[in-house]
C-alpha cells in the first residue's frame, strides 16, 4: 500500500479516469487526470497516495488479475466515501464486476447498457482485500522467461507463438535497430545477444512495458521510449533493422490498422536497404501494406498460426 505521508501530490481531491470509458455510460469531468498506462501524458495509478481522489471512473481491463489490481488501486486512492464508477463489456469482465467490487467490501449499484455493465459505489471506510489484489497484479520475475513482467502485458508470463517464430527464424542482426512493441524485452534480449548490434531502441505505448524492459535489459546499447507508433517516432531514422510483433487488438477488439501503422513506422525509420522482420497472425492481411512501404517483401516462415516476413526498403 502507498502512504501519503510527506507526499505532495498536485491532484489531491480531484477526479481521475482510467482508460477510455464511453462518455454516455460514465461521464468524466473536464480536466480529469488520466491514469491509464497507455497514456503518454498520464499519471501512474500506483503513484497516487492513499485517499487522494474524490471520484474515479475506470474502463476496466479485461484480464482478471489486471482488472482486480486496477480496482484495488482505485479504491485505495479514493477518499472514504469517494465515488468509483467502473464499466466493462459484459463478456470482457463486465459480468464479474459487481462480485469483484463487493469482495472489497463495497455496496454496488449495477446497471446494464449497450452490452456493458456499469457499477457504481462509494469507497467504504475500511475496504478489504486491497493488498492481496495489488500483490496478485504487481510486476514479478517470471522464472520461465527469466524476465520481470506483469499481468496486463501481452503474453506476460510466456513467449507467444509469434515471438517464438521470429526468434527461431530471423537471422542474427547488426547495426542500429529498433524493437517496435517491445513488451518486457523478450525479442530485444535476443537481438542484443549479437555483438554486431550497435544500438537498439525499445518502443512501446504501454508505460509498464517500457519500465519493465528497462529493468530487464541492462545493456548500454539499449534505449527506451514510450511512444504511440501510429505517429512518427522522434529522432529515429536511417536504422539498419527493425523487429516487430505488432499488436492487433485495442481495448479487446481486433484492430488490424495497428499493424499497418507499425509497418509504416518501420519503413520511415529504416535506411534504404534496411530490413524489417515482422511476424503476424496468418489471418491478418499485411501483405499489401508491406508491399506499399517496402521495395521487396519475402515470406520467411509459417508456424503455429503465424507468418514471418523480411521486408527491405
Strand content: 25-35%
Termini gap: 50 Å
Shape: elongated
Sheet with most strands: strand arrangement: 11-10-9-12-15-17-16
Tell me the number of strands: 17
| Fraction of residues in helix | 10-25%
Overall average pLDDT: 92
**Overall SS class:** alpha/beta
Low-confidence stretches: 1-8
CATH-level-2 architecture of the largest domain: 3-Layer(aba) Sandwich
Main beta-sheet strand count, sense and barrel state: 7 strands, mixed
CATH superfamily of the largest domain: Vaccinia Virus protein VP39
What is the element string, with H for helices and E for strands?
A: EEEHEHEEHEEHEHEHEEEEHEHEE
Can you put this structure into words, describing what you see?
With 313 residues, the protein is an alpha/beta fold. It folds into two domains: 14-137, Rossmann fold, CATH 3.40.50; 140-312, Rossmann fold, CATH 3.40.50.150. It is built from eight helices and 17 strands. It has helices at 64-77, 94-103, 130-137, 161-169, 186-191, 207-216, 256-269, 287-293; strands spanning 14-18, 33-34, 53-59, 78-89, 109-113, 116-122, 140-142, 147-149, 175-180, 197-204, 222-226, 239-244, 249-250, 253-254, 270-281, 296-303, 306-312. The chain has a seven-stranded mixed β-sheet, sandwiched between helices. The protein has a six-stranded mixed β-sheet with strand order 2-1-3-4-6-5. A hairpin with a 4-residue loop joins strand 7 (140-142) and strand 8. The longest helix has 14 residues, at 64-77. It is elongated, with a radius of gyration of 21 Å. The termini are far apart. Mean pLDDT is 92; it is low at 1-8.
Amino acid at each position: 500500500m502507498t502512504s501519503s505521508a510527506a507526499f505532495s501530490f498536485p491532484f489531491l481531491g480531484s477526479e481521475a479516469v482510467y482508460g477510455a470509458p464511453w462518455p454516455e455510460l460514465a461521464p468524466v469531468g473536464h480536466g480529469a487526470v488520466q491514469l491509464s498506462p497507455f497514456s503518454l501524458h498520464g499519471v501512474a495509478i500506483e503513484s497516487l497516495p492513499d485517499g487522494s481522489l474524490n471520484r474515479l471512473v475506470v474502463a476496466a481491463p479485461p484480464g482478471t488479475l489486471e482488472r482486480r489490481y486496477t480496482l484495488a488501486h482505485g479504491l485505495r486512492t479514493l477518499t472514504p466515501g469517494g465515488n468509483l464508477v467502473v464499466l466493462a463489456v459484459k463478456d470482457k469482465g463486465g459480468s464479474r464486476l459487481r462480485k469483484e467490487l463487493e469482495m472489497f467490501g463495497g455496496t454496488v449499484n449495477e446497471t446494464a447498457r449497450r452490452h456493458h455493465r456499469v457499477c457504481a459505489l462509494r469507497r467504504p471506510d475500511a475496504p478489504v482485500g486491497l493488498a492481496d489484489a495489488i500483490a496478485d497484479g504487481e510486476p514479478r520475475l517470471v522464472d520461465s522467461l527469466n524476465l520481470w513482467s506483469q499481468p496486463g502485458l501481452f503474453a506476460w508470463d510466456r513467449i507467444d507463438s509469434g515471438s517464438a517464430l521470429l526468434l527461431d527464424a530471423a537471422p542474427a542482426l547488426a547495426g542500429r535497430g529498433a524493437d517496435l512493441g517491445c513488451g518486457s524485452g523478450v525479442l530485444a534480449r535476443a537481438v542484443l545477444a549479437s555483438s554486431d548490434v550497435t544500438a537498439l531502441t525499445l518502443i512501446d505505448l504501454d508505460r509498464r512495458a517500457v519500465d519493465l524492459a528497462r529493468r530487464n535489459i541492462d545493456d548500454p546499447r539499449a534505449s527506451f521510449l514510450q511512444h504511440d507508433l501510429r505517429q512518427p517516432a522522434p529522432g529515429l531514422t536511417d536504422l539498419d533493422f527493425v523487429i516487430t510483433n505488432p499488436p492487433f487488438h485495442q481495448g479487446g477488439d481486433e484492430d488490424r490498422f495497428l499493424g499497418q501503422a507499425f509497418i509504416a513506422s518501420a519503413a520511415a525509420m529504416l535506411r534504404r536497404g534496411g530490413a524489417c522482420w515482422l511476424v503476424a497472425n496468418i489471418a491478418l492481411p499485411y501483405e499489401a501494406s508491406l508491399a506499399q512501404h517496402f521495395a521487396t517483401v519475402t515470406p520467411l516462415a509459417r508456424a503455429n498460426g503465424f507468418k514471418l516476413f523480411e521486408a527491405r526498403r
